Amino acid sequence: MKTAMLRYSALILLAVVFTACEDEPPTAYDPVPFLEAYLTVDEPVQGIVLAMSQPITEPFDYGDMMIPDADVTLSAKGVEYQLQYVERNGVGSYLLPDSSITVKPETHYELTVRLSDGRTMRAETVTPQRIGWVTPPREILQYPQDTTRLFSPDSLRIEWTPGNSVEYIVRVRVLDTLGYGKYLDPQTVETNERTNNIPFEDPDDPTFYTFTRWGFVQTSQAPTVWAAFRWFGLNEVAILAPDKPMLDWFKSTQWGGRTVEYRAEYSNVEGGVGIFASASIVRQNVFVLKRKKQ
Predict the structure, then answer these.
(1) Which of 25, 138, 173, 226 has the fewest CB within 10 Å, making it most exposed?
(2) How many CA atoms lie within 13 A of 289 on its CB side?
(3) Are 259 and 120 in the same domain?
(4) Chain-wide mean pLDDT for the chain?
(5) What is the pTM of this model?
(6) Do 52 and 144 share a domain, yes or no?
(7) How is 158-215 classified by DSSP, letter by letter?
């Protein structure tokens, strides 16, 4: 009898435990609207991402995250522009349909988002001055046999007009990871390959396969170091002169480590989270020749 009572008590205890495990969490997740919008001087208004945050306890779904039915307007100098949601290659964003209207330098822009549930988001930016090349990167670079024996201020030095930004973002990205020989004269069928110039990079790390490298400098001139090129072949070297919100956001999410964490103090969006920022940019395509064969 005693044994039967013990077994019965154990069953009741298990039932209580399993029932407790099925209870809803004490605090339900409340999604927050997220905005990521950048304006580039002299370029059309496009690529403005509006999404809803998702709980980390559920599978991530990019499609469900996007907000395609918001009323998004951009205003500057008393003129209001209506943005439109478009989807390209499975990625949705807002843009200004008239691509002939480009972003002006030294101009105050305000972005307003009205969600279907009645919530409103606002943010603003003042675009930086236009910048330009003083000494652009050379169009063809011969990758050296030994990069460790070069002086730092070598022939890769570049310079641009300072504008009114206090710091600058440097971006180097490969434009074609496959083609190499087709850019030569005469053309060949040779394929592209990685430079493998940083021996401690780990192929098992997802960042190993990124096509873009970022950095920032505090002067309007700098050497483009060889280690910036992950690939031979066709690359692009770009300088971004950002406003302060973009610079702060960049340092928060791209610099100083491999873990990207959201920093609320760097958000300038009212009624949500995220960033609305602007920059002036100069670019130059650079073809990096492979090491000379010995």
Answers:
(1) 25
(2) 12
(3) no
(4) 83
(5) 0.81
(6) no
(7) EEE--TT-SSEEEEEEES-SSBSGGGSSS---PBP-B----TT--TTSGGGG-SEEEE
Candidates 243, 284, 246, 244; CA nearest to 105 is 243
Average pLDDT over residues 7-18: 43
Handedness of CA 158, 160, 166, 170 (dihedral sign): negative
> Tell me, what amino acid is at 101?
I
- 136 φ/ψ sector (left φ>0, alpha ψ -120 to 50, else beta): beta
**Which residue type does 163 have?**
G
Contact 171, 240 (CB under 8 A): yes
Judge contact between 117 and 263, C-beta under 8 A: no
Contacts of residue 251, Cβ cutoff 8 Å, sequence gap at least 6: 216
Strands 212-217 and 157-160: unpaired
Q: Please give the residue range of the domain that contains residue 229.
A: 133-267+279-289
With a cut of 50, say whether residue 143 has pLDDT above it.
Answer: yes
CATH code for position 45:
2.60.40
Using the 8-state DSSP alphabet, how is residue 41 labeled? B
* Each residue's pLDDT tens digit, 222-265: 887 788 888 999 999 999 999 999 998 888 776 654 445 566 67
The answer to whether 73 and 112 are in contact (CB under 8 A) is yes
Counted residue by residue, the chain has a size of: 294
**Residue 18 domain-assigned?**
no
Most confident listed range (23-32, 188-197, 259-268)? 188-197
pLDDT band at 156 (very low <50, low <70, confident <90, very high): confident
Say how many domains are in the chain. Answer: 2
Three-class DSSP category at 25: coil
**Residue 59, number of CB atoms within 10 A of its CB:** 6
